[in-house]
Amino acid sequence: MTQILLAVDFEYDLILFELLSEIDDVTIVARPADEVELLAHCRTGGADVVIIGRYFPGLDAEVVAAIAASGVKVLGFGDDEHALADLGITTVVATDADAPTMAAAIEDIRAATVVPPRPAAPPGAVGGAGVIITVWGTGSSPGRTLTAVNLADQASRQGRRSVVVDADTVSGMVASTLGLTEESSHLASLCRSQTDPSGRGHQHSVPHAVIRENFHVVTGLTRPERWPEIRASVLEAVLQRLATAYEVVIVDISDRIDPDDDLADPFYDRHCATRAALEVADIVLILAAGEPIGLQRLVKLLGTPRAESVREKMRLVITKVRAGAVGHPAETRIREVLDRFVRITPDFLLSDDRSTADAAMLAGHTLHEQNPRSVLVGDLAAMMDELLPGRRRSRRSPGGRERRGAGRRGRTQRARVSQVGGPRD
């Protein structure tokens, strides 16, 4: 007897019930209401096959992968085979199928062996046309958000169409750093549109805030407790989608990466967004503060399996470099410490310019807007040149300053920055 779970929307529920009632050796064990109930049934081993429709509540690629991991076979039902294939459902029965066709499909999928799909393209950058740079690092505030925002700013000033994405599910601060007063989450809107095929627009029509023509922002969660809205597989798809619209996608993430509770259901892991952003990245920047505690935390982080898993695409960045914290000369001292304990040389060292950083934060400006002659601005520009060499700088006005557009004169006026595309949160 084949045990069936029906996971379709109301429109197809009755059709399937009548169709399956004509097939021998098939029984419907449950009709779950959403993905939570569906996964619970799959993980208890109470079903052999799930018949699933495109509009089932909570359905996305991660749910399909979790069903497959439980050992239950997935059979799609509907007339939108391509949309179901995007979710990882390879076998689909049309809505006008008769009982023998459905019975054959159930029998075939029960006997089938799951084979990973053949890659559609040769190995290479996973982000598409653009480059995805994820900014990670230790605790103790090494300046992840400050670095992510200003790297995107520098990339745009060097002629690259850039976006900074706030994927920090613990304490997203990109909007506050740039003085954006919109209270909606662009990232949550993007994730919703990614999982709702009917809501997807053109790949270039994504919710974002405009700082300058080539510098955009995808704001993060407005409250930390909204983290379940950002799922790993959906976030990966969103970042890859952004990489088709931007030359540089810079992702700001939390330092926390492992589950809060090792015994909890991994499907509802708060920090899966951090791991997804690391997985999809072309370049991972690991930040640590250039001070004794920051360097000690970096040594511990570099010894973890998580850091080892991104070693091939890792670039090490030491921030807040100053002689007062480690001795003179600061750069030499830092290099000596890292060589002694982890045998690694930092790729970039960023100077400590607290006065400019504080003033920029207070005004809701980037570092370049606040003080284009800052030594930290120069460090970040050189860093972006080295990360993505070979691009021509954009033409600037005399004095290196760009003319600001409307709504760019201060923190309070940035509330007028428009959202483009997608539903408001």
TrEMBL record:
InterPro entries: CobQ/CobB/MinD/ParA_Nub-bd_dom (IPR002586), P-loop_NTPase (IPR027417), ParA/MinD_ATPase (IPR050625). GO terms for cellular component: cytoplasmic side of plasma membrane; cytosol. GO terms for biological process: negative regulation of cell division. It comes from the Bacteria. Residues 387-425 are annotated as: Disordered. GO terms for molecular function: ATP binding; ATP hydrolysis activity. Residues 133-334 form the CobQ/CobB/MinD/ParA nucleotide binding domain. This is CobQ/CobB/MinD/ParA nucleotide binding domain-containing protein.
